[in-house]
Design brief:
Strand content of chain B: over 45%
Shape of chain B: globular
Distance between the termini of chain A: 41 Å
Structural class of chain B: mainly beta
Largest interface: A-B, 21 and 21 residues
Distance between the termini of chain B: 37 Å
Helix content of chain A: under 10%
Largest sheet of chain B: 7 strands, mixed
Order of helices and strands of chain A: EEEEEEEEEEEE
Largest sheet of chain A: 6 strands, mixed
Strand content of chain A: over 45%
Oligomer: heterodimer
Number of strands of chain B: 11
Helix content of chain B: under 10%
Number of helices of chain B: 0
Number of strands of chain A: 12
């Protein structure tokens, strides 16, 4: 079945260093939609980024990700971490493409940014 | 427009009790989801409705968990009977494919079962 793998459960970074959170996926669907959701402490998850197009970079709020179907990856990056980036990040996959449907969420990566 | 609303925000139950959590999706959204969130398991899908029809029922949760959509703007999640391992945050989300490819989450209900 469809699945999403986030290899890091916890990432601790010093402010100003680059961020990279890994996300790989498995699906039989040829046109997957990939998402990154962010959840700050005591809040609910909210959409950070989404992508439907192979090899096209998508950006929002300083973060960016590129869907690579050849490697089934959708890694989240940022050039310089800020203290306010500390949060739980979920990568997610839609197995119905534009019909969206349910999302398959990864286990989540907790990002902690320290001064 | 109002977002997804959930009540109550906090619930404390004794083991064996029946509890009902409520959710109102964003107006006009026809997909509704119930999730359970814990630190260990992350986000787990409990139920998924499209236009009030049950599309998916989380296999591991079938025996004591029952979600219903009474109408297009109201859903409930019943847990009967509750067990201490049910202590978690229960999140409701809604979406409207074709308009915005995004699930909007409610604030959640934090359930503690003693």
């Amino acid at each position: 079945g469809d699945s999403v793998t986030q290899t890091e459960g916890l990432v601790t970074l010093t402010e100003g260093l680059p961020v990279m959170l890994n996300c790989t996926y498995q699906t039989i669907y040829s046109n997957p939609f990939l998402f990154w959701y962010v959840q700050h402490l005591n809040e609910s998850p909210r959409l950070l980024l989404k992508s439907f197009t192979d090899n096209k970079r998508t950006e929002h709020q300083g973060f960016h990700a590129t869907l690579h179907k050849s490697s089934s990856s959708f890694h989240l990056q940022k050039s310089s971490a800020q203290l306010s980036d500390s949060a739980l990040y979920y990568c997610a996959l839609s197995d119905r493409g534009s019909a969206l449907g349910r999302l398959h969420f990864g286990a989540g990566t907790q990002l902690i940014v320290i001064p | 427009d109002a977002g997804v609303t959930q009540t109550p925000r906090h619930e404390v139950a004794e083991k064996g009790q029946t509890i009902i959590l409520k959710c109102e999706p964003v107006s006009g959204h026809n997909d509704l989801f119930w999730y359970r969130q814990t630190k260990i398991q992350g986000l787990e899908l409990l139920s998924y409705f499209r236009s009030k029809s049950l599309m998916e029922d989380g296999g591991a949760f079938k025996d004591r968990f029952k979600a219903e959509m009474l109408n297009s703007s109201f859903s409930t999640l019943k847990i009967q009977p509750t067990e201490p391992k049910d202590s978690a945050v229960y999140l409701c989300a809604s979406s409207r494919p074709g308009v915005a490819w995004e699930q909007f989450f409610g604030p959640g209900t934090r359930l503690t079962v003693l």
